[in-house]
Amino acid sequence: MHYTPSFPLYPTMPPPSHRNDQYVMKVSGEGTLSVTPDRAIVVLGAITESKDVSTAQKENAETVSKIINSILRLGIPKENIKTSDYRIDIQYDYEDGKQILRGYKVTHLLQITIDKIEQTGLVIDTAVNSGANSVSAIKFTVAQPNIYYNQALSLAINNAQQKAVTMAKTLGVTLNQIPNRIQEVSGAPEPVPYQASLYAMSAATPVQPGQVEISAEIRTEYSYTV
């Protein structure tokens, strides 16, 4: 008696036209908004040098205290002022191949968040007049970046959908308008740096924030039928 199985002993792969990966298109989407910044982040402070480390520290502390007090008088909240860098470096001279101690350099930099962006130049000038001799960075941003980032994210999704529709029309296929998968590629927006030279500062430093670009990027997959 012979037994005949009801299924093939050697399963076969479906023809290429029936495979799932033939019905998926992958597209990316980008969205960008140009926003006027409403917040500035400034890094400035004092650098002092002396042959004696204690003297260098003392002079630096006195100068930084003057800088902080002068900025507080402008109405900048105390919590908007914090130390971003503090270090003591040993300095040497070299004579006839020998290392000779020259002294010490103390660096104390403050990060100041300015919520009234029009005060940026005033804050810098006030700090310089109070003894600041280093302005290492000015960055512009917005107080609520996530609001604008979510708008850019929406633009990115629409951009990806438009690409998928265009591709489907060109191929003559039917697109499923609801994506199978969406992946967020970009992250939270970062402040935009502004290069500033201390020696370019004047009694009324003009600081122009310009526009901040907030971008979002996604990757997505759409299914379609032929």
Automatic annotation (TrEMBL):
Q: Which domain of life is it from?
A: Bacteria
> Some GO term, biological process aspect, for this entry: which one?
DNA damage response
InterPro entries named in the record: 26kDa_periplasmic_antigen (IPR052022), SIMPL/DUF541 (IPR007497)
Cited Pfam families: SIMPL
Q: What is this protein called?
A: SIMPL domain-containing protein
Q: What is the lineage of its organism?
A: Bacteria, Bacillati, Bacillota, Bacilli, Bacillales
